[in-house]
Amino acid sequence: MSPDLTQSWESELTSIQHSLKFVLKLKEEFVCPVCRGVVLNAQQNSCGHIYCFHFYLNGDGEGRGTHLSLYVVLMPGDFDELLLWPFRQTVSLSILDQSGARNHHSLSFRPDPASRSFFRPDPKSVGNLAVGFSCFCPLNQLEAGKNAIYVRDDTLFVKAKVDMSGLEHL
Predict the structure, then answer these.
(1) Beta-carbon contacts of residue 106 (< 8 Å; ≥ 6 apart)
(2) What is the DSSP letter of 82?
(3) Distances (CA, A) of 97 to 36, 71, 81, 147, 148
(4) How far apart are CA 140 and CA 66, in angstroms?
(5) Are 95 and 156 within 8 A, CB to CB?
(6) pTM for this model (two decimals)
(7) Residues facing residue 74 across a β-bridge
């Protein structure tokens, strides 16, 4: 990994939620030239589910060229046979306000239990289909120059939170 691409991970666990926080430094040369996406390493929560987060800095799908796109992928893991499927926990994705005003931009989704994206991942696969937001945040809000609150010094803070309520018994 290049030292210019900063990725720091911090996990927080409380009785009702698990948060994965990371810092992604926006540098054009670190964006995949094919899909324009950035894929962060998989993270496992305390109950065994494994997630991978996909970021498209120049958008994906409906948001291509106009929005930041954020997605979550459920990955196969060693404890999948012990977990509850389909995955039903609420997922919240946020970009953090760096101005100090705490006007974070957040969107959440509750999984559709009928969607194959939330079924137990095939152990031979690289993960289920990505689910999230193709139009998470307009690029013009990220590129607001001196008035930018989400990107400062080429750094965007992204937070993912998975609500763990109901899984305390695992």
Answers:
(1) 92, 93, 94
(2) G
(3) 24, 20, 39, 11, 9
(4) 8
(5) yes
(6) 0.75
(7) 51
pLDDT digits (tens, 9 = 90+) for 82-91: 888 999 889 8
Q: What is the pLDDT of residues 112-143, one digit of tens each?
A: 999 999 999 999 988 899 999 999 999 988 87
In one-letter notation, the amino acid at residue 138 is P
- Distance, CA of 142 to chain centre: 17
Token pair recorded at residue 137: 């945040």
**What residue spans define the domains of the chain?**
9-163
Tokens of 99: 């101005």
A 10 A CB-CB count for 116 gives 10
Answer whether residue 61 shows pLDDT above 60. yes
- Alpha-carbon gap, residue 107 to 69, rounded angstroms: 11
pLDDT in tens, 97-118: 988 888 999 999 999 999 999 9
CATH topology of domain 9-163: 2.60.210
Residue 19, pLDDT > 80, answer no
**Is a pLDDT exceeding 50 seen at residue 37?**
yes
Q: Is the dihedral of CA 44, 17, 10, 55 positive or negative?
A: positive
Which structure tokens are listed for 159?
A: 């937070």
